[in-house]
Amino acid sequence: MDPLLPVGPEESSSRSTIITTPESGPSKKRKLAEEQSPSAIAQKAPKSETSFAFLFPLTKPLNREKPGDSSRPFQWLKPLGPMGSCLHGVNLQPKASTKVAALDLDGTVIKSEFATKSVAGKPSSWSWWRSFVPDKLKELHESGYAIVLISNQALKPAALNSWKEKIPLIGQALSDLPFRILAASQKDQYRKPMPGMWREIERIFLEEGVQIDKSVSFFVGDAAGRQYTKGKGDFSSTDRKWAQNIGLRFLTPEEYFLNLPSHENYTMPGFRASTLPELPLVIPTSSSIIPVKRQQEVVLFVGYPCLGKSTFYRRFFQPEGYLHINQDTLKTREKCVKALQEAIKAGKSCVIGAVVSHSSP
Fold first, then answer.
1. DSSP strand E in 114-206: where?
2. Sheet holding 218-220, edge to edge
3. Structural fold of domain 277-360
4. Quick one: which of 259, 247, 347 has its CA closest to 298?
């Protein structure tokens, strides 16, 4: 019997007793095999004086849970984003909260296993970063925090499938703890330090009528760019940058789980969105985003991925009936051109979201 499946009173009470008597003979093994067949049992039961009981359940056999089975506490939901590159899963039924405890997965909640090769057909092994991590997560939940795990997982298909099979096992170990997990499976706007996954969290919470309060929320991650005079430093500063780009308080696992002082010797090389100056939405500021005197127009958005072009459209232009022509959803340039021509012919205003790639001049 599966050790994870408890035996309840229904299973023990729903049984029938069939009486049979093994006869003596020269071959005990053969006789025993014959006597345990249904026909032998039916034939020999009336002739017996000495009896043995064989118990058979009358109820249906217990279902064995499989990865992705809805009976498990954890389940993967439909991926997020126009390309489905942001994996999304929930353990139990997590509720939105104004307070969010966001945590990196590998190296923070569980131990990093970059050098560990998974066995074909089996989920990767895993262990807690520290044994008391589940207790700390439970304390957060009881304090009213929504727990969200954030992870970069740009892996090859086989490795990604193995990783996905590991998450329900973590959900089983946290069987009474609701949490949500988002994982970037491609190097796009969802991958930390880009804020795409946080934007999705804000959107999901807003659908439940909850506005996140960043002043009481925080993010814990191990990619903090820490440098040491002796020993190897952090492999990157991605987590620290992600928190800074979003505007969340940042802590390392050592600071949060072990209450160690913050390590101030760190570097954050490369571009940081948080270094950009605060600018008005429209210049000159006296201009309105939507023309006061309405007429057909085509608005062109140009910028790198995940700068907020689609959010800007949904906030200002969608309520005014502007169409959104976006290659992320239409897939090809030809379809975008056709959609634009049809919009112009129909007399409709539209917004075109153009993406500047790194190879663009």
1. 146-152, 179-184
2. 74-76, 86-91, 179-184, 146-152, 100-104, 218-220, 249-251
3. Rossmann fold (3.40.50)
4. 347
Q: Count helices and strands (H / E) in the chain.
A: 11, 12
- Residue-wise over 63-82: b if at least 16 C-beta within 10 A, else e? eebeeeeeebbbbeeebbbe
Residue 290 structure tokens: 């939507």
Other beta carbons within 10 Å of 59: 10
Closest CA to 146 of 198, 81, 69, 72: 198
Look at the chain and count its residues: 361
CA angle 152, 124, 259 (to 5 degrees): 60
- Segments making up each domain of the chain, as ranges: 74-113+125-273, 277-360
d(CA 229, CA 43): 84
Instruction: Tell me the backbone φ, ψ of residue 100, rounded to 5 degrees.
Output: -120, 130
Alpha carbon distances (Å) from 95 to 90, 210, 212:
10, 10, 12
Tokens of 95: 């509720």
Give strand ranges (E) for 283-344: 298-303, 323-326
Query: The whole model's pTM is what?
Result: 0.64
- Three-state secondary structure readout of 154-203: CCCHHHHHHHHHHHHHHHHHCCCCCEEEEEECCCCCCCCCCCHHHHHHHH
For residue 104, the 8-state DSSP code is E
CATH superfamily of 74-113+125-273: HAD superfamily/HAD-like (3.40.50.1000)
Residue ranges for the chain with pLDDT beneath 70: 1-72, 114-124, 305-306, 355-361
Question: In Å, how far are 125, 151, 188, 222 from 110, measured between CA atoms?
Answer: 10, 12, 25, 11
Residues 52-83: tens digit of each pLDDT: 333 333 333 333 344 444 456 899 999 999 88
Q: Tokens in use for 203? A: 């959107």
